[in-house]
Amino acid sequence: MLPECQPQPEPECRVLSIQSHVVRGFVGNKSAAFPLQVLGFEVDLVNSVQFSNHTVCDPVMGDKRNGDGYMYVPENLLPVYKGKVVPLADIITPNQYEAEILAGKKMNTEKEAIEVMDVLHAMGPDTVVITSSDLPSALGDNYLVTLGSQRKVIAGGLRVTERIRMEIPKVDAVFVGTGDLFAAMLLAWTHQHPNNLKIACEKTVSALQHIVTRTISNAKALAGVGKKPSAAQLELRVVQSKEQIENPEIIIHATTI
Q1: Which of 49, 120, 124, 229 is deepest in the core (most CB within 10 A)?
Q2: Cβ 54 vs Cβ 25: under 8 Å
Q3: Which phi and psi (to 5°) does residue 27 adopt?
């Protein structure tokens, strides 16, 4: 008589997501929760604020506007981010402006960007992805550059750093919630591929590009021929892109630097 097999519980991955919430649209927790759930995570949500829809209120530290840096949060919070928040993080996803003010260094070249990421590594995080930068692209002015760096331990206890670069086509539209969506999917894919930043970033960026492309196409159809889509029409088509979130076709490739 064969022994009875004891059923095994399914592995559980759980994320505590503390972000803003909107009733309508996709930003903050609304943008992050669905892709994490689709990719197998239990998500516990704490809404830092609740609005009817997104406004100029943004959870990021700052960004560039017309080439100039602009802080969304009071400048006296910068030491809190540098001294308390970033050192606790395993993964950070700043834009170029945020990376520069956190590191205290400008990045006008790829070499300087690597130096900035090394400063951020020294603050604590093992994975740093600069989500967008205005570094020159070999493919031309119509591309943004994303850079990533991951410190990891390989066989024999040797510590190495993997660096990647991605060229992403620019789109002629303004979206809200793409950063939150990027961070959520990167968290999921780095969990799936903990020692392969290249694949994790390719899946994250490709999925985001699928969503953005779908959103623009739908927004233009809603707006009508010759009309510019409104902000409401450009709400990210996250739920409709479930298949691309779960199993993204790789359309944006990373190169190792």
Answers
A1: 120
A2: yes
A3: -160, 155
What does the block give as tokens for 249? Answer: 């076709």
Q: Which residues have CB under 8 Å from 53's CB, separation 6+?
A: 22, 23, 24, 25
Neighbours of 82 (CB within 10 A): 16
What is the longest distance spanned by two Cα atoms in the chain? 75
pLDDT tens digit sequence for 135-156 = 999 999 999 999 999 999 888 8
Q: Respond yes or no: is residue 180 known to be catalytic.
A: yes
Among 238, 240, 243, 171, residue whose Cα is nearest residue 26: 238
- Rounded (5°) CA angle 34-39-41: 80
Do 19 and 32 contact (CB within 8 A), yes or no? yes
Query: Which pTM was predicted?
Result: 0.86
DSSP annotation of 57 reads -
Q: Quote the radius of gyration of the chain (alpha carbons, Å).
A: 19
Tokens 């919070």 -> residue: 77
Q: Which of 58, 118, 172, 180 is catalytic?
A: 180
Residue 66 has what pLDDT?
59
